[in-house]
Amino acid sequence: MEVKIKPVSGCAQILLGILTLGIFPLAQWLNLRGWPKALDESGLTTRGGTKIAWNEFTKVTKVITNIGRTGAKTEHYELKFPKGKIVVAPYRLENGDQVLEYVWRRLPAQAKG
């Protein structure tokens, strides 16, 4: 299964690029390297090209972030493995709930606990 990220609007990217003196595009690129690119029965492949088998994942953490004073919240999941973590943010992925369900069904039981 190919995982596609919903793009940030072009106007927002340009504005953030200007406000951060060009740091935003670089930071975004580095951050997205730790997001899934493809999922299959054997494991997950990151956007950076790293292949991780499902049995390598050791812990799943649900992260809820409050956005300002609006009361709005976002949530994502961090899949931890010995060499780092992978971020699965359903709200930023096309078919995000399906991606999360696919991942959840394949994670080892000890990682979910």
Task: Pick out its properties.
alpha+beta, 3-stranded antiparallel sheet, globular
Structure description:
By secondary structure, this protein is an alpha+beta fold. It has a domain at 35-112. The protein is built from four helices and six strands; from the N terminus they run ααββββββαα. The strands form two sheets. Strands 1-2-3 form a three-stranded antiparallel sheet, covered by helices on one side. A three-stranded antiparallel sheet has the order 4-5-6. β1 (36-39) and β2 (43-46) form a beta hairpin. The longest helix is centred in the last third of the chain and has 11 residues, at 96-106. It is globular, with a radius of gyration of 15 Å. The mean pLDDT is 91.
Percentage beta strand: 25-35%
Number of helical segments with 4 or more residues = 4
Gyration radius (Cα, Å) is: 15 Å
Structural class determined from secondary elements: alpha+beta
What order do the strands of the largest sheet run in, or round the barrel if closed?
Answer: 1-2-3
Q: What's the helix-strand series?
A: HHEEEEEEHH
Major sheet attributes: 3 strands, antiparallel
Shape: globular
End-to-end C-alpha gap: 25 Å
Instruction: Return the average pLDDT rounded to an integer.
Output: 91
What is this structure, in a nutshell?
By secondary structure, the chain is an alpha+beta fold. It contains four helices and six strands, in the order ααββββββαα. It has helices at about 10-20, 25-30, 95-105, 110, and strands spanning about 35-40, 45, 50-55, 60-65, 70-80, 85-90.
Task: Set down the secondary structure blueprint.
Blueprint: H1 10-19, H2 23-32, E1 36-39, E2 43-46, E3 51-53, E4 59-67, E5 72-81, E6 84-88, H3 96-106, H4 109-112
Antiparallel strand pairs: 1-2, 2-3, 4-5, 5-6
